[in-house]
Write a structure and sequence with these properties.
alpha+beta; two-stranded antiparallel sheet; globular; binds octanoyl-coenzyme A
Length: 372
Amino acid sequence: QQVVISGVGVWHPKDSITNEELVDSYNAYVDAFNEENKAQIESGDVAAMPYSSAEFIEKASGIKSRYIYRKEGALDITRMKPKIAPRADDELSHQGEIAVEAAKLALASANVTADEIDAVIVSCAYTQRAYPAIAIEVQEALNIEGFGFDMLVACSAATFGMHRAYEMLSAKNATRVLVINPELVSPQINYADRDSHFIFGDVATATVLELAETAKSEHVYDVLSTKALTKFSNNIRSNFGYMTRAEDVDPYGPDKLFHQAGRKVFKEVCPLAAAHIEAHLASHDITPEGVKRWWLHQANINMNTLICKRLLGRDADRTEAPIVLDEYANTASAGSVIAFGLNHEDLVAGDVGVLCSFGAGYSIGSLVIRKR
Ligand code: CO8
């Protein structure tokens, strides 16, 4: 029973923010903060905030721009967060809406209709509520019979979601699975923190997995196997959660938003990811040289360069290891799916590729796939 990926969809909001726009807003915020706290800064009681720089951002990360679901508010120095109007219980939620957009694209790519799906997994870094599951809401919106559930695995949510789909299909618990990654991350970004204000963008991706015998699309990929690894680390963390109310702490404090020790993450995750991928390929007697395409997690261009160099002993070119960071930034778990979605149609039968995520948790998830 060969499990395949038969469709992929990438949806992004229409609004985006360039590095220059982001830095202009952040630096204006810094000026206002430093002016307001002038006396305490001079007495040494408060540290002056430093400026951010568009050149630093591009050099350190490869990011030039990012999409944002609601641009209004995010660059307003009196607000520093997007302004998202709440929706009533009987309206489609924001995250449900972007999940449906990506799902429709993936269904079209797989050449199937929603009534041919019988399981929905919504897997991403955050869900906007605990219940009812966003997946069940999407299931209802698309009129899908069967079952759905949500999963959270931060950066590896998309690959781990595909892993679960692979297992459900192998176990015959489902016949066609829709895995959706509505990465609506902008509400969790601390736009007043220069270390992280530039990192993330909003996007939604989706994939369709099924058995080879039912696949109808033009581009079908056999999933040779899946491999996962997790190792606990506090180096990427958000303490936002339902306990906040009972803890009587500031629900908007910086520790409630995304924060990280970026250097440590870089140093620790790169070797882990390279070793993981090498071992996964070796289990199929495939060497890195035998891989036609690397759809890697998109957190930082220098991480991808280093990981490819470790694997190949040389630099990978942009065709072999596509980078989408310049346009999309880090989109949590969706990065490797965007890279795959935008860069796979030229592969020919027999070409092998690796989809791999790595990041918060730490978590690493890979799929070795081969064009049918
Ligand atoms: N502008 C100017 N200077 C800056 C800025 C800035 N914006 N930011 C930092 N600097 C300064 C620093 O203060 C430092 O100054 P000094 O040398 O005086 O101390 C100097 O620049 C160098 O700083 P770093 O050493 O931190 O710079 P790096 O070259 O390491 O780059 C990165 C920083 C880009 C953060 C890099 O370390 C990195 O990308 N690391 C890997 C991070 C990573 O993979 N993170 C995973 C993210 S988690 C994820 O993908 C999903 C999580 C869930 C989603 C959350 C959504 C909100």
